[in-house]
Write a structure and sequence with these properties.
The complex is a heterodimer of chains A (251) and B (310). Chain A is mainly alpha-helical. Chain A is 81% helix and 2% strand. Chain A contains eleven helices and two strands. Classes of the chains: A mainly alpha (251), B alpha/beta (310).
Chain lengths: 251, 310
């Protein structure tokens, strides 16, 4: 049934293999710069956050941010490019492949980009900083990272489907995606928010993702409610991505 | 007995108040090359997008090889090849990889598609460039690669949407040769702006405008539709062309007269009127009288008008 999705995904992985080095250099540079600037540079001014040195506090969030940003960016730009520039989506649609298979392939590609790039950034941070975590925490962490990457990949698919201009993609990332990531307690503890605002911030799936992922990686906690929130959000985003893509293609 | 490959019945497509296709009827026989002509915005691309299942009609029916396009989209897509207006090649894959991806999307086995791709690359003269990326190809080579891609799975119906737009004359003729070589082995449905292309390739032609079918037949049949009116060009020596143009214009059997310099073009009701013209011109300084052959362009313009479409 998913033969067409597999063919498109294999194509995407073939292209990724060809450009993996340049992709990883670009992907590692951004979170590493943030880590060095904030984690190392600001550490002595900030001290401990939630009982951990600031450099260690932000490390899990940077790995998660790399993964979900990569998933989002790959999906949104890839879909836009294939739809508006290269017209390859149309060439897929005149084959026996269903629209749902195209979406599934693209979501899975975005998810793989996120996973690979997140892992590489994690390894680099692990190698050059004192940040350490017990390996047995990795399983709990992946329970957040996998649906989280899928969620952002679906969001990217929706963006790449509905946005026809590249500048709009950049604007949406600047005013919606990055604020959602940054507001989720990536650089500061959620306790910094006023209690009236905290309720709303906690309702965001990105907060559940970043907070849950950090706790999972650092303390090995598996918080069931945030995990469920991320999984449910990714399921809803998947359904929305398929529906919106099908609708747009039928126009 | 001819078998119908494409059958279209009262096909209508509306975008709000705009009707792009208006109760369109058509039948295309199996194994023929069929040309669809029309000015910009006539509804050609809408029709081809509906037939290739990329778009749903508002009403009416269409069948490809007997299968309803609304109910059997997947089955139809497995038996059609599509060359769209845009090249739609994957610039991050080599020429061969582009064809391999298409074969995998059609669920072809590797042993089968490997041999088929070798054949097609050879046929299209691209075997030596199969490991190169399409961005490094000329426009003609890219177009040949798109056609090769559409043929990988050996379709029964091939849709060519303006296949030679933007190509130089040599590349255009090369594409025509490939298309001609396919004649008989599959049904080819072609849209084009180049009337010469339609004349060169098509067994039958339809002309559409404002979403409606306005003419259908072989090229000769369409030209014959204008044969009721016959056009002659009369060339005069020296001055007097204007005087004789006015004289001819006053004759009841003359439908239209235009004069450019020493040449006067007269449109007659029928060729039998020529003797009246010759009598009227008795003693006139006529250098030559020649019959103007009707072209497909004359037919096209007479049916769709001369006004440029937006």
């Amino acid at each position: 049934m998913l033969r067409g999705a597999m063919a498109i995904w294999q194509r995407d992985m073939q292209v990724l293999r060809r450009s993996i080095i340049s992709e990883l250099v670009a992907v590692v540079a951004y979170p590493l710069t943030i880590y060095l600037a904030f984690g190392i540079g600001m550490q002595s001014y900030i001290g401990l956050v939630d009982g951990a040195p600031y450099a260690l506090f932000i490390a899990p969030g940077l790995i998660t941010m790399t993964a979900v940003s990569a998933a989002y960016n790959e999906s949104v730009w890839s879909l836009w490019f294939h739809r508006r520039v290269q017209f390859t989506i149309e060439s897929y649609r005149v084959t026996p492949v269903s629209v749902s298979e195209i979406v599934i392939a693209k979501i899975f590609t975005g998810f793989m980009h996120g996973l690979i790039k997140g892992c590489v950034v994690g390894m680099v941070i692990f190698a050059i900083t004192p940040f350490r975590f017990p390996m047995e925490h990795l399983f709990q962490y992946l329970l957040f990272l996998i649906p989280g990457s899928a969620l952002f990949s679906c969001a990217g698919i929706i963006g790449g489907t509905v946005m026809d201009k590249p500048e709009t993609i950049g604007k949406v990332e600047a005013v919606l995606v990055m604020p959602l990531i940054f507001m989720s307690g990536l650089f500061f503890p959620l306790s910094s928010y006023p209690s009236s605002l905290l309720v709303w911030v906690r309702a965001l799936p990105t907060t559940a993702l970043f907070e849950g992922a950090r706790r999972a990686l650092v303390a090995g906690d598996l918080m069931p409610l945030p995990a469920l929130q991320v999984v449910l959000s990714s399921v809803v985003a998947f359904a929305a991505a398929v529906f919106i893509f099908r609708y747009k293609m039928s126009e | 007995m001819h078998t119908v490959s494409i059958a279209i019945r009262a096909l209508t497509k509306s975008y709000g108040a705009l009707t792009a296709l208006d109760s369109f009827d058509l039948e295309v026989e199996q194994g023929t090359i069929f040309g669809l002509l029309g000015p910009n915005g006539a509804g050609k691309t809408t029709l081809i997008r509906i037939l290739t299942t990329l778009m749903r009609q508002s009403s009416g029916d269409a069948f490809i090889e007997g299968l309803d396009i609304q109910r059997y989209g997947c089955e139809i897509r497995s038996m059609i090849g599509v060359v769209s207006q845009e090249n739609s090649l994957d610039r991050y894959l080599t020429a061969r990889e582009n064809l391999e991806l298409h074969a995998r999307l059609h669920g072809m086995e590797k042993q089968l598609y490997k041999r088929r791709i070798d054949e097609l690359l050879e046929l299209m003269g691209l075997a030596g460039r199969q490991k190169d990326f399409p961005d490094t190809f000329s426009g003609g080579m890219q177009r040949r690669l798109v056609i090769a891609r559409a043929l990988v799975h050996q379709p029964r119906v091939l849709f060519l949407d303006e296949p030679t737009t933007g190509l130089d004359p040599q590349s255009r003729r090369a594409v025509w040769e490939y298309v001609r070589s396919l004649a008989g082995s599959m049904t080819i449905f072609l849209t084009t702006h180049y009337l010469e292309e339609a004349e060169q390739l098509c067994d039958r032609i339809a002309i559409m405008d404002h979403g409606r079918l306005i003419a259908l037949g072989s090229i000769q049949e369409l030209k014959d539709r204008l044969s009721g009116a016959t056009v002659y060009e009369i060339e005069f020596t020296g001055q007097g062309a204007a005087h004789y143009a006015a004289l001819l214009a006053s004759m009841p059997c003359v439908l239209d007269v235009t004069q450019v310099g020493h040449k006067v073009t007269v449109t007659l009701e029928c060729w039998e009127c020529l003797s009246e013209i010759v009598t009227a011109l008795n003693g006139a300084p006529v250098r030559r009288i020649s019959l103007q052959e009707r072209t497909l362009e004359d037919v096209f313009i007479s049916l769709t008008g001369q006004k440029v479409r937006e």
